[in-house]
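ugh ok fine here u go
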Amino acid sequence: MNTRTSCKTAVFALVAAIFIGAMAPQQAFADHQKRTIVGSWMVSGTPDFGDPFENIGSFHRDGTVVNSDPVFGGGHGVWERVGPRRYEVRFLTLVPPNNPFFAPNVVIEVRGVVRLHRGGKTASAPFVTTFTDPNGNLLLTTTGRIELTRITLN
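structure:
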């Protein structure tokens, strides 16, 4: 084999290695998403009474969760893996001033066990929500179901 052919082969091998190396982290991330709840999700909820709702939730690798609701504001909490594709979630929201439904500083607690569906693009969970006044007195408990759809670039 001559030197010119050897150089072309070496350059081709280097370009191929760089390309494959660049693609591997993206594939690893996509595979990781199929197995974990980490990421951001559109949430559609159907309470057992009342109107359906929409919000956005983000699950972080450190076990924290942040929720954004257009009526009640932002919620913060935690999640933990409790089984294959199952994650226990708890978050709290403080009702902001001028809310049309509850007085300021009512604490909303949401709990549920989310089941990540095969493929990792959707998930679902039954939920229990409690509303307590600033002194911890129970005002209301409600239940329902949520469906989650992963937010992706595509």
